[in-house]
Amino acid sequence: MKKKQSAIFLLMLGLFLVQLLCSQTPVADSLIFLLKKDKADTNKVNHLNQLAIELWGNLDTAIICSSQALKLAEKINIGTKEKGWLKGIAKSNYLLGVFNFDKGNFYIALGYNTTALKIWEQIEAETNNPVTLRQVRIAKAKSIGEIGNAYFGQSNYPKALEYQLKALKLSESLNQERAVGNILGNIGNIYSDQKQYEKAIEYYLKSLKVGRKLGNKYDMSIDLRNIAIVYSKKGDAYKQLEYSMMALSTSKQLGNDFETANNLISVGSAFQNLADSALKSGTPYDQLKGEYEKAMAYFLESLSLEKDQGNLFGEAMNYSNIASIHIAQKNYKEAERYFLKALSLDSTLGSLSQIKEMHEGLGELYYLKGDYKNSLKHIKLYSQSKDSLFNEEKNNEITKHEMNYEFDKKEVASKTLLDKKEALAETDRKRQNIFFWLLSIVALAVAIVAIIVFRSLRLTRQQKQIIEQQKVVVEEKQREVLDSIYYAKRIQQSLLPTEKYINKNLIRLKEH
Prior knowledge:
mainly alpha
């Protein structure tokens, strides 16, 4: 009883924290109202997770909601042998994975979505209903994609691509257009980090096309920012600024603080790159001071939003960017402080690509300060991190995953084409069979008619023969009768005196 009361207390405390920590939307308010009335059942789990999604802009608050949902889902007894509501457990794990990824907790995110995937696969194996099975597979594809994202956050690019291609294949088979667009963007991220920029832009543009088609501004914001990042890496700061401003405008229209914070970093980086390029070309710092100040303002605004959301990854990126501004301003002490804060966070998060960037920045900073010992130390660490990220074996593994996906895709296409050909052949066979049986029926009908006609003609001939025979008999009988008549007549004529004899006798009697 005490345990139950404790759980209820924790849940109500979580809801109280939600009310304190977030500026609520009408949807969030209505969900909180429902949660206060809900029993400890599946509805409460669903409402907690829906509230977490609604409060995505505040990651710590969203995590509180889904953590409460997970605890409740694990305790629910729905009448099966296994304790806990599997769908609720899987959905809660999935969301906790997503939220922790957005915070930059990549190892934690990987653990949650690995658990979610196993549960979805268990539910899939036990499901017979086609509608439910489709829903489970859609959820399964999302967890696979999030596992790929977690590996990407850890800079494990072969594993990241492997899982993204798995998610892409499953989402395509389910005709999940938005999911396909998101995965295409995730694959673009992998190629971007691997410095395959043209391929990265190719995937981002494919993803952006899907977002525009569906009118999804959130996805469009991400794709526009990713394209800006690629142009930054290619050294085209003007294109970077163009796409960054489009992304920032889109996220502000949405009112999404998480996306806006990321886009502010992108815009700030574009202004910084323009100023750095001009500085290297010989333009005096005094003429570029305004550009650096613009960049700093964007980074500080983003940092404030990232801290509000508890986004450690975004926070680390802003520390790094602020440090680089201080280098340009020759404020080396401040630059060192911010670089070390960024490195500490990146090491905690396990982001190898960001750790590499921090060692490179510190190596440059210490060189400018004349501290060659520390400079050499961080340059070596940068080199080791770089080798870990870009070795030949990893590139070959990435190529292998892509080739396997393309092969599978072609195999599916070939099988589909073969199935179509077989279907057409089967249709032709059925059509030929129908024609054969139709022809057979017609032939049989003709044969039956012919037999009937033949029998009718035969019967007619037989009747005609009988009639002719009867006619002959009648004629013969008639002839016999006539012959008898003629014979009697002759006898009669032979017995009776002739007319001439009678006349002669009459004349003779008159004379007497």
